[in-house]
Amino acid sequence: MSKVISIGEVMVELSRGADGRYGLSFGGDTFNTAVYLARAGVETAYATALGDDPYSESIQAAASAEGIDIRHMVRVVGRTAGLYLIDTDARGERSFTYWRDSSPARDLFELPNWEATAERIIETSVIYLSGITLALYSNTGLGRLLATLEFARERGSRIVFDGNFRPAGWGGDIARARAVYAQALKRTSIALPTFDDETRLWGDASPAATAERLATFGVPEVVVKNGAEGALVMAGGASQFVPIPRPVEPVDTTAAGDSFNAAYLAARLDGQAPGPAAEAGHVLAGQVIRHRGAILPRQANA
Protein backbone atom coordinates (compact mmCIF):
# COMPACT_ATOMS: atom_id res chain seq x y z
CA MET A 1 0.00 0.00 0.00
CA SER A 2 1.46 3.37 -1.01
CA LYS A 3 1.76 6.09 1.61
CA VAL A 4 0.77 8.92 -0.78
CA ILE A 5 -1.57 8.95 -3.74
CA SER A 6 -1.44 11.93 -6.08
CA ILE A 7 -4.45 12.75 -8.26
CA GLY A 8 -4.50 14.71 -11.49
CA GLU A 9 -3.28 14.66 -15.07
CA VAL A 10 -0.04 13.67 -16.79
CA MET A 11 0.55 15.20 -20.21
CA VAL A 12 3.10 15.05 -22.96
CA GLU A 13 5.46 17.99 -22.37
CA LEU A 14 7.36 19.82 -25.09
CA SER A 15 9.82 22.32 -23.60
CA ARG A 16 11.75 24.76 -25.77
CA GLY A 17 15.50 24.57 -25.21
CA ALA A 18 18.13 27.30 -25.51
CA ASP A 19 18.58 26.37 -29.20
CA GLY A 20 14.89 26.93 -29.89
CA ARG A 21 14.11 23.24 -30.32
CA TYR A 22 11.56 21.38 -28.22
CA GLY A 23 12.48 18.40 -26.09
CA LEU A 24 9.86 15.77 -25.24
CA SER A 25 9.07 14.75 -21.69
CA PHE A 26 6.02 14.21 -19.48
CA GLY A 27 4.61 16.44 -16.77
CA GLY A 28 1.69 17.86 -14.88
CA ASP A 29 1.69 19.56 -11.49
CA THR A 30 0.62 16.67 -9.28
CA PHE A 31 2.63 14.20 -11.38
CA ASN A 32 5.76 16.32 -10.93
CA THR A 33 5.23 16.21 -7.17
CA ALA A 34 4.69 12.44 -7.30
CA VAL A 35 8.01 11.98 -9.12
CA TYR A 36 9.94 14.02 -6.56
CA LEU A 37 8.17 12.25 -3.68
CA ALA A 38 9.16 8.87 -5.12
CA ARG A 39 12.75 10.06 -5.58
CA ALA A 40 12.73 11.06 -1.90
CA GLY A 41 11.88 7.47 -0.99
CA VAL A 42 8.17 8.01 -0.28
CA GLU A 43 5.87 5.20 -1.44
CA THR A 44 3.76 7.03 -4.01
CA ALA A 45 0.90 6.11 -6.34
CA TYR A 46 -0.72 8.16 -9.09
CA ALA A 47 -4.40 8.23 -10.04
CA THR A 48 -5.39 9.45 -13.49
CA ALA A 49 -6.84 8.32 -16.80
CA LEU A 50 -4.75 7.96 -19.96
CA GLY A 51 -5.45 6.88 -23.52
CA ASP A 52 -4.35 3.79 -25.42
CA ASP A 53 -1.90 5.74 -27.59
CA PRO A 54 1.89 5.17 -27.57
CA TYR A 55 2.50 8.34 -25.55
CA SER A 56 0.15 7.17 -22.80
CA GLU A 57 2.11 3.91 -22.76
CA SER A 58 5.32 5.92 -22.42
CA ILE A 59 3.84 7.96 -19.56
CA GLN A 60 3.09 4.78 -17.65
CA ALA A 61 6.58 3.48 -18.36
CA ALA A 62 8.17 6.73 -17.18
CA ALA A 63 6.11 6.71 -13.98
CA SER A 64 6.98 3.09 -13.30
CA ALA A 65 10.67 3.81 -13.88
CA GLU A 66 10.43 6.49 -11.16
CA GLY A 67 9.04 3.93 -8.73
CA ILE A 68 5.49 5.27 -8.84
CA ASP A 69 2.62 2.77 -8.39
CA ILE A 70 0.76 2.94 -11.72
CA ARG A 71 -2.10 0.55 -10.95
CA HIS A 72 -4.57 3.44 -10.89
CA MET A 73 -3.41 5.09 -14.09
CA VAL A 74 -6.49 3.89 -15.99
CA ARG A 75 -6.27 3.37 -19.76
CA VAL A 76 -9.21 4.42 -21.97
CA VAL A 77 -9.59 2.92 -25.43
CA GLY A 78 -9.63 5.37 -28.33
CA ARG A 79 -8.35 8.35 -26.33
CA THR A 80 -4.99 10.16 -26.25
CA ALA A 81 -3.03 11.93 -23.54
CA GLY A 82 -3.06 15.73 -23.30
CA LEU A 83 -0.20 17.87 -24.62
CA TYR A 84 1.39 21.14 -23.54
CA LEU A 85 4.25 23.34 -24.70
CA ILE A 86 6.49 25.38 -22.39
CA ASP A 87 8.20 28.57 -23.49
CA THR A 88 10.43 30.58 -21.13
CA ASP A 89 11.44 34.22 -21.23
CA ALA A 90 14.84 35.75 -20.40
CA ARG A 91 14.01 35.66 -16.66
CA GLY A 92 13.12 31.97 -16.70
CA GLU A 93 9.39 32.68 -16.35
CA ARG A 94 7.34 30.19 -18.29
CA SER A 95 4.22 30.31 -20.42
CA PHE A 96 2.12 27.31 -21.43
CA THR A 97 0.04 26.32 -24.44
CA TYR A 98 -2.30 23.35 -23.93
CA TRP A 99 -4.13 20.76 -26.03
CA ARG A 100 -6.10 18.91 -23.35
CA ASP A 101 -9.83 19.53 -23.77
CA SER A 102 -10.49 15.87 -24.63
CA SER A 103 -7.97 14.42 -22.18
CA PRO A 104 -9.23 11.18 -20.58
CA ALA A 105 -7.98 12.46 -17.20
CA ARG A 106 -11.06 14.69 -17.12
CA ASP A 107 -13.29 11.61 -16.89
CA LEU A 108 -11.47 9.75 -14.11
CA PHE A 109 -14.46 9.88 -11.75
CA GLU A 110 -17.03 9.17 -14.46
CA LEU A 111 -15.45 6.09 -16.04
CA PRO A 112 -17.20 2.72 -15.51
CA ASN A 113 -14.61 1.66 -12.90
CA TRP A 114 -14.37 4.97 -11.02
CA GLU A 115 -15.42 3.30 -7.74
CA ALA A 116 -12.24 1.20 -7.76
CA THR A 117 -10.16 4.36 -8.04
CA ALA A 118 -12.13 5.95 -5.20
CA GLU A 119 -11.62 2.91 -2.98
CA ARG A 120 -7.88 3.02 -3.60
CA ILE A 121 -7.77 6.69 -2.69
CA ILE A 122 -9.75 6.13 0.51
CA GLU A 123 -7.30 3.45 1.64
CA THR A 124 -4.22 5.70 1.31
CA SER A 125 -2.64 7.57 4.23
CA VAL A 126 -1.99 10.85 2.38
CA ILE A 127 -3.93 12.20 -0.60
CA TYR A 128 -2.34 14.94 -2.71
CA LEU A 129 -4.20 17.12 -5.20
CA SER A 130 -4.26 20.66 -6.54
CA GLY A 131 -6.50 23.35 -7.93
CA ILE A 132 -5.56 22.11 -11.38
CA THR A 133 -6.90 18.69 -10.37
CA LEU A 134 -10.21 20.27 -9.34
CA ALA A 135 -10.46 22.18 -12.63
CA LEU A 136 -10.34 18.92 -14.61
CA TYR A 137 -13.70 17.51 -13.59
CA SER A 138 -17.37 18.12 -14.32
CA ASN A 139 -19.75 18.77 -11.44
CA THR A 140 -20.46 15.03 -11.32
CA GLY A 141 -16.77 14.18 -11.15
CA LEU A 142 -16.15 16.85 -8.53
CA GLY A 143 -18.98 15.57 -6.39
CA ARG A 144 -17.53 12.07 -6.46
CA LEU A 145 -14.00 13.30 -5.74
CA LEU A 146 -15.12 15.43 -2.79
CA ALA A 147 -17.17 12.56 -1.37
CA THR A 148 -14.11 10.33 -1.72
CA LEU A 149 -11.97 12.85 0.14
CA GLU A 150 -14.56 13.09 2.90
CA PHE A 151 -14.70 9.31 3.36
CA ALA A 152 -10.91 9.18 3.38
CA ARG A 153 -10.66 11.95 5.95
CA GLU A 154 -13.14 10.18 8.20
CA ARG A 155 -10.91 7.08 8.02
CA GLY A 156 -7.87 9.11 9.08
CA SER A 157 -6.27 10.07 5.78
CA ARG A 158 -4.58 13.45 5.48
CA ILE A 159 -5.51 15.65 2.51
CA VAL A 160 -2.72 17.83 1.09
CA PHE A 161 -3.87 20.59 -1.26
CA ASP A 162 -1.92 23.02 -3.46
CA GLY A 163 -4.24 25.79 -4.67
CA ASN A 164 -2.36 26.15 -7.99
CA PHE A 165 -5.04 28.39 -9.51
CA ARG A 166 -5.05 28.75 -13.30
CA PRO A 167 -7.92 31.00 -14.52
CA ALA A 168 -8.11 29.35 -17.95
CA GLY A 169 -8.90 26.01 -16.33
CA TRP A 170 -12.07 27.51 -14.88
CA GLY A 171 -13.13 29.36 -18.02
CA GLY A 172 -12.93 32.62 -16.13
CA ASP A 173 -15.66 31.51 -13.67
CA ILE A 174 -14.08 32.80 -10.47
CA ALA A 175 -17.24 32.24 -8.41
CA ARG A 176 -17.31 28.53 -9.31
CA ALA A 177 -13.59 28.17 -8.61
CA ARG A 178 -13.98 29.76 -5.18
CA ALA A 179 -16.93 27.53 -4.33
CA VAL A 180 -15.07 24.35 -5.32
CA TYR A 181 -11.89 25.42 -3.55
CA ALA A 182 -13.88 26.10 -0.40
CA GLN A 183 -15.18 22.54 -0.42
CA ALA A 184 -11.69 21.14 -0.91
CA LEU A 185 -10.22 23.35 1.82
CA LYS A 186 -12.81 22.19 4.35
CA ARG A 187 -11.29 18.73 3.94
CA THR A 188 -7.63 19.81 3.85
CA SER A 189 -5.00 18.87 6.44
CA ILE A 190 -2.03 20.65 4.83
CA ALA A 191 -2.39 23.56 2.39
CA LEU A 192 0.58 24.49 0.18
CA PRO A 193 -0.60 27.53 -1.80
CA THR A 194 1.43 30.00 -3.85
CA PHE A 195 0.79 33.61 -2.88
CA ASP A 196 0.47 34.92 -6.47
CA ASP A 197 -2.24 32.33 -7.18
CA GLU A 198 -4.13 33.18 -4.00
CA THR A 199 -4.05 36.87 -4.93
CA ARG A 200 -5.56 36.09 -8.34
CA LEU A 201 -8.33 33.94 -6.90
CA TRP A 202 -9.09 35.58 -3.55
CA GLY A 203 -7.46 39.03 -3.69
CA ASP A 204 -5.19 38.41 -0.70
CA ALA A 205 -2.96 41.37 0.15
CA SER A 206 -0.15 39.40 1.81
CA PRO A 207 1.01 35.85 2.55
CA ALA A 208 -0.18 36.40 6.13
CA ALA A 209 -3.66 37.22 4.82
CA THR A 210 -3.61 33.98 2.81
CA ALA A 211 -2.60 31.93 5.85
CA GLU A 212 -5.25 33.55 8.02
CA ARG A 213 -7.98 33.01 5.42
CA LEU A 214 -7.08 29.34 5.03
CA ALA A 215 -7.18 28.93 8.80
CA THR A 216 -10.83 30.03 8.71
CA PHE A 217 -11.54 26.91 6.63
CA GLY A 218 -10.10 24.84 9.48
CA VAL A 219 -6.78 24.02 7.75
CA PRO A 220 -4.34 23.28 10.60
CA GLU A 221 -1.09 23.55 8.60
CA VAL A 222 -0.44 26.14 5.91
CA VAL A 223 2.69 26.95 3.90
CA VAL A 224 2.39 30.00 1.64
CA LYS A 225 5.06 29.89 -1.05
CA ASN A 226 6.22 33.28 -2.30
CA GLY A 227 9.03 32.64 -4.78
CA ALA A 228 12.28 34.41 -4.00
CA GLU A 229 10.60 35.99 -0.96
CA GLY A 230 10.60 32.64 0.85
CA ALA A 231 7.65 30.96 2.54
CA LEU A 232 5.32 31.66 5.44
CA VAL A 233 4.59 28.62 7.60
CA MET A 234 1.63 28.52 9.97
CA ALA A 235 1.18 25.40 12.09
CA GLY A 236 0.35 24.59 15.67
CA GLY A 237 -0.96 28.08 16.26
CA ALA A 238 2.37 29.73 15.41
CA SER A 239 3.73 31.41 12.27
CA GLN A 240 7.28 31.65 10.99
CA PHE A 241 8.97 33.03 7.90
CA VAL A 242 11.36 30.63 6.17
CA PRO A 243 13.66 32.44 3.69
CA ILE A 244 15.29 30.80 0.70
CA PRO A 245 18.86 29.72 1.59
CA ARG A 246 20.47 31.69 -1.25
CA PRO A 247 19.38 33.60 -4.37
CA VAL A 248 19.07 31.49 -7.51
CA GLU A 249 19.09 32.76 -11.10
CA PRO A 250 16.29 30.70 -12.69
CA VAL A 251 16.62 29.04 -16.07
CA ASP A 252 13.05 27.72 -16.01
CA THR A 253 10.61 28.10 -13.09
CA THR A 254 8.45 25.16 -14.21
CA ALA A 255 7.65 22.83 -11.27
CA ALA A 256 9.26 25.09 -8.67
CA GLY A 257 6.18 24.85 -6.48
CA ASP A 258 5.57 21.19 -7.29
CA SER A 259 9.07 20.21 -6.21
CA PHE A 260 8.87 22.39 -3.08
CA ASN A 261 5.67 20.57 -2.13
CA ALA A 262 7.31 17.17 -2.60
CA ALA A 263 10.34 17.98 -0.47
CA TYR A 264 8.17 19.61 2.21
CA LEU A 265 5.78 16.66 2.37
CA ALA A 266 8.60 14.08 2.34
CA ALA A 267 10.26 15.86 5.25
CA ARG A 268 7.01 16.07 7.21
CA LEU A 269 6.34 12.37 6.64
CA ASP A 270 9.86 11.72 7.92
CA GLY A 271 8.96 13.48 11.17
CA GLN A 272 10.61 16.85 10.56
CA ALA A 273 9.00 20.05 11.85
CA PRO A 274 7.34 22.46 9.38
CA GLY A 275 10.23 24.98 9.44
CA PRO A 276 12.98 22.54 8.42
CA ALA A 277 10.57 20.92 5.96
CA ALA A 278 10.10 24.30 4.25
CA GLU A 279 13.88 24.70 4.11
CA ALA A 280 14.07 21.33 2.33
CA GLY A 281 11.42 22.57 -0.08
CA HIS A 282 13.46 25.65 -0.92
CA VAL A 283 16.57 23.55 -1.58
CA LEU A 284 14.87 21.21 -4.06
CA ALA A 285 12.98 24.02 -5.80
CA GLY A 286 16.28 25.89 -6.17
CA GLN A 287 17.77 22.88 -7.94
CA VAL A 288 14.76 22.42 -10.22
CA ILE A 289 14.63 26.00 -11.50
CA ARG A 290 18.24 25.80 -12.66
CA HIS A 291 17.19 23.25 -15.30
CA ARG A 292 14.71 23.29 -18.17
CA GLY A 293 11.49 21.32 -17.91
CA ALA A 294 9.52 20.02 -14.94
CA ILE A 295 11.58 16.97 -14.03
CA LEU A 296 15.29 17.10 -13.20
CA PRO A 297 17.58 14.57 -14.85
CA ARG A 298 18.24 11.86 -12.28
CA GLN A 299 21.91 12.76 -11.86
CA ALA A 300 20.97 16.40 -11.12
CA ASN A 301 18.48 15.24 -8.46
CA ALA A 302 20.99 12.93 -6.76
UniProtKB/TrEMBL annotation:
Lineage start: Bacteria, Pseudomonadati, Pseudomonadota, Alphaproteobacteria, Hyphomicrobiales
One Gene Ontology term from the biological process aspect of the record: DNA damage response
Signal peptide: none
Keyword field: Kinase, Transferase
Single GO MF descriptor: 2-dehydro-3-deoxygluconokinase activity
Domain Carbohydrate kinase PfkB: 1-298
Family: Belongs to the carbohydrate kinase PfkB family.
Species this protein is from: Ancylobacter mangrovi
SUPFAM superfamilies assigned to the protein according to its UniProt record, in alphabetical order: Ribokinase-like
Protein name: Sugar kinase
CDD domains tied to this protein: KdgK
PROSITE patterns with a match to the protein in the record: PFKB_KINASES_2 (PS00584)
GO terms under cellular component: cytosol
